[in-house]
Amino acid sequence: MALIRGWVPAPGPFGELQREVNRVFDAVFGKQLGAPGRIRAGYVYPPMNIWETGDGYVVACEVPGLEMADLEVYVAGDQLTVSGRRAEAVPEQGVTLHRRERDSGHFSRAITLPGPVDSTKTEATLADGVLTVRIPKAEEAKPKRITVHLEG
Amino acid sequence: MAKTSEIPVGASRRNEEPPESYFVPATDIYETEGELVIVADLPGVKPDALSVTVQDNVLEIRGAHPAPQKAPGEALLQEFAAGEFYRAFQLPADYDTEKVQAGLKQGVLTIRLPKSERLKPRRIEVKAE
């Protein structure tokens, strides 16, 4: 039986709990629960993946159909805000609608990063409907290698 | 006019078997006077990782959302994942599947199927008698 996947539990203990709840739910109700779209449960837009590297943070957002001109990316303090507007694909008039599942309209999402960042060196790129924002950590937050001197 | 319908999981009316586990792309479908337009969200997908097939009026979309080649670092939040996607629709028999056009732009797939000539609305000249 095919498993339809809708969303991904977060890493860490809460994700583990969600995965366990999913397993029980799937066992009771079967696995075909996925609604169309990439993310549904606890729905927020745009869905994000965030990684921490030694020097900074990498944030990827799925924003299919948007161009850079439709997007605004701000970094203020330790907060990253991604906002924009997604245009409606279906013309308003003169069409017969068979199905509408894609969301449209304004969105804004703000996330707080775990530490201080250097907003002036933030870079954002857009490719294939995925926005990637690279935010370097503030100098004082970067890991520093301490040279150990041998004594005596 | 007949509408497009989703082919349910487990139905035998398919071009090929669906993957074991898959995402279902959000899709808009609408019809104009001249064509049927199917718009599907496929973020991160490149044209070579996507296949669109039409056979016996069954339209199938399949492929994979790519994984980053190497995780950039330690994951703090994971709300979307790599993996295969799949969707199948039964089309009304009134479209010219020979002339189907498909384009992928910024992670959005648009498929256009022209209506067969027979079905296009035709203005009938009314003559005074």
Account of the protein in words:
The complex is a heterodimer of chains A (152) and B (129). By secondary structure, chain A is mainly beta. Chain A has one helix at residues 13-29, and strands at residues 3-5, 48-52, 56-62, 71-76, 79-86, 96-99, 105-112, 123-127, 130-136. Chain A has two domains: 1-43, no CATH class; 45-88 and 101-140, Immunoglobulin-like. The model of chain A is unreliable at 1-8 and 28-33 (pLDDT under 50). Chain B is an all-beta fold. Chain B is elongated and about 80 Å long. The interface between A and B is large, with 55 and 50 residues.
- How many separate structural domains of chain B? 1
Strand order, sheet with most strands of chain A: 2-3-9-8
- Topology-level CATH name of chain B: Immunoglobulin-like
Q: What's the architecture of chain B, going by CATH?
A: Sandwich
Beta strand % of chain B = 35-45%
The beta-strand count of chain A equals 9
Supply the CATH class of chain B. Answer: Mainly Beta
In one word, what is the shape of chain B? elongated
Q: What is the CATH domain class of the largest domain in chain A? A: Mainly Beta
Evaluate the radius of gyration of chain A: 20 Å
Oligomer: heterodimer
Average pLDDT rating of chain B: 86
Question: Which structural category do the helix and sheet elements of chain A fall into?
Answer: mainly beta
Q: Considering DSSP H and I runs of 4 or more, what fraction of the residues of chain A is helical?
A: 10-25%
Number of helices of chain B: 0
Order of helices and strands of chain B: EEEEEEEEEE
First CA to last CA of chain B: what distance? 32 Å
Taking the sheet with the most strands of chain B, its summary is:
4 strands, antiparallel
